[in-house]
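For reference, the entry.
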Amino acid sequence: MFSISKENFIKQAELYQTVALSVTVVADTKTPIQLFRLFDAEASFLLESKDPLSPWSSYSFIGLNPVKFLRDENETFVCRSSDNQKLWSESDLQTAWEKVMDSFHISPDLPDLPFPGGAVGYLGFEGFRYYEPRIETLQSGEHDAYFMFCETILAFHHEDEVLTVTHFQDTSEGAEAAYAEASGRLHGILNIIEQGKEGRFPMISADEQLEEDVFAGVTSNYTKSEYEEDVRKIKDYIAKGDVFQTVLSQRFELPVKSDGLSLYRVLRKVNPSPYLYYIRFPEQEIIGSSPERLVKADKTKELEIHPIAGTRKRGRNSEEDQALAKELAEDEKELAEHLMLVDLARNDLGRVSRYGSIKVHDMMNISYFSHVMHLTTKVTGILKENIHPFEALFSTHPAGTVSGAPKVRAVEIIQELENMHRGVYAGAIAYYGFNKAIDSCIAIRTIVLKNGTAYVQAGAGVVQDSVPELEWEETRNKAKALLFAIKLAEQRLEEEEVINNDTR
């Protein structure tokens, strides 16, 4: 029944601090949302994808019961236990990262999954300062690096309709006791799933309309005139030769009564994307549907970046959609901006890739999403020997598509003009597995839920030929899908009709 025998487990427990024990069962009557709700008290993240080319697309991953957290605190990096006890701290993020991963001293017998377990969390936009000394610290009280390590992972395979449950067992109390605890934990999880008392769900209609405008009751840190004035300031910097492009964002906020899971359920329906995620931290919840990979590194050491730059709203019908796509593909400003950011992606990967391994694929394809279409390209490389995969994340973060070029000067201008802490927005949502695979996306099309307020942020790339009003409209178009999801979740919360099952 289990992935390894008791005898094998005990042998591994005598050699390793942590041993993984797994079980795979048929789960054809369950969905990831149902499973998350079944373990609501201890469920901490849900990772999914609606992209058939993504390694996440076949699976949904649910993390239960975080046992360690790694986060920044007062310019140091602190590892804390599940009860918030400080275990240790380091002054350097890379050192802290390697130390926390090594602390598990995990057995190599892991399930063959894209993400078999490990770290899940985010590196915020301002985390750039941890490896770029020119970037100033903006005081906010928020964490700019925050990762969790869960002791149990549920991996739901959609096509096969099977569920793999993996428990990472600490062996410090002895091998026999460790096996008893791990096997008992797996049996307990299977019993909960079999009983299936996940509660009731508000119904979601795929074609439901809002009773009000998506921007009704929404406030922003910018007025239209203020935003357009800052666009003109960036164009002045461009004229002086400081930068070629800078991404100027605005933050929308509104009060909400819905919980994070309800927002996520709606968002994954109205804005399906290559990266879907719902992450619960003690201080805030992160709900996202990002279209853009930051960087991926797998066990073959191949690296990938998917730059996205160039945007049009979706048409009201197929004819208008095709006309807008043609307009985008022929827009010299958009093409020049995209090419510049592809070059930046090549440079970012080049710092950690083997010489001559950088390649560009599928140049300037048009990718379609629920509310917008984008120009996209794929850039790949091969990780250098003796380079930690996490260094690839540092090398590419923050993405040029949400900062600008040259990157450091663009970020300085962003901090001057926006004059606020971006936090999660435009940073990286990432996992780093015990199998040394890393995947990450740019934290765009993302909702941050904190103390009953939902925050949505969106930016536009300002270049020499930018029209200020059009850049303002681009930020609003990008925010619409998320604001629609929030408003729809709130609308459904007020209605009486409920169902017991979510359909995938």
Summary: Confidence is low (pLDDT under 50) at residues 496-501. The CA atoms of residues 234 and 489 lie 37 Å apart. Residues 6-198 form a domain with the Anthranilate synthase fold (CATH 3.60.120.10).
